[in-house]
Specification:
With about 280 residues, the chain is mostly helical. The protein contains 15 helices and three strands. About 45% of the residues lie in helices and about 5% in strands. Helix 6 packs antiparallel against helix 7 (about 105-110) and helix 6 packs across helix 8 (about 115-125).
Length: about 280
């Protein structure tokens, strides 16, 4: 609030703020209408506010016969119900939509023409996950220098088996779920860390594009700094099986206990999620 106030006082310009609006907090689904509070707050301080709620799949469906009723249902759907149906999948979406909207006419045909998988993809196609929708909004915002807030609707855990589950914060997938995700993403076994693995474009084409971006063409971004001594080994308590997050947290905690130049130069930023990220030190 104070940052927005200061920005208003000093005529802030050329600033974008993207709100990842997944409608879930650490341990619950957020209260209805929270986006309106965000919108009102930013507008009161002179910001433009852009709502990115529907992706291109949903926008196309709305143009079909019966699509306007689907839009109305989506916009009125409570957060808890939307999250629950997302987790349950396409069959659950079908049952609920047919119960609420089925008319043995255009709306029913709109729903029934899609498989369970296609229906789940349609209902999960929110604006914050749809690159074309995001790019269009960014391009339009480039036309002025007023500060702009993008409220981007998303699904927490998008594309994963735990998407939409109320307890998915810091959730971990099973090995079989990770394997299924690897196959869906088109990542070859053993190539998980390859830079361009899983992308559908030619690697040379991608490298050429990245090299031509303004960021890559800018002046040198590396600056020299004096070397400081770094311990050759840091002993921390470990377990036979533990997550990388937990291991990293233990490592940071041990470093934080020292008064070395090394420790003084490490800063972790993890607002409000210190438990699940193990960065409470």
């Amino acid at each position: 609030f104070e940052a927005l106030l200061e920005g208003w006082k000093h005529g802030l310009r050329n600033t974008w703020w993207v709100v990842d609006y997944n409608r879930q907090s650490l341990d619950a689904v957020v209260r209805e209408g929270l986006w309106q509070r965000f919108e009102s707050l930013f507008r009161n301080f002179g910001w433009e506010v852009v709502i990115l709620k529907h992706g291109t799949l949903q926008q196309a469906a709305f143009e079909e016969e019966g699509g306007e009723k689907l839009r109305t249902w989506i916009d009125a759907c409570p957060n808890q119900l939307y999250s629950a149906l997302t987790f349950q999948g396409g069959a659950a979406w079908r049952r609920r939509l047919l119960d609420d909207l089925g008319d043995q006419g255009p709306v029913t045909r709109l729903i029934e023409k899609r498989s369970d998988e296609e229906l789940a993809a349609l209902m999960a196609n929110l604006g914050g996950h749809d690159l074309a929708t995001i790019v269009d909004a960014f391009e339009e915002a480039r036309g002025h220098n007023r500060p702009t807030c993008f409220i981007a609707y998303t699904i927490k855990g998008f594309g994963l088996p735990l998407a939409g589950h109320k307890d998915n914060h810091a959730g971990l997938m099973t090995p079989s779920q990770v394997e299924a995700l690897r196959q869906v993403m088109g990542v070859r076994e053993g190539c998980e860390w390859d830079r361009f693995e899983g992308l559908a474009y030619d690697e040379a084409e991608i490298r050429s594009y990245l090299a031509s971006t303004p960021f890559a063409k800018a002046a040198a971004r590396r600056h020299p700094a004096p070397a400081i001594p770094v311990p050759a080994r840091i002993d921390v308590a470990s377990q036979a099986a533990m997550s990388t997050q937990q291991g990293f947290g233990l490592l940071m905690h041990d470093i934080a206990k020292s008064d070395s130049d090394f420790a003084k130069r490490i800063v972790t930023t993890s607002p409000d999620v210190t438990v699940s990220t193990n960065l409470g030190a």
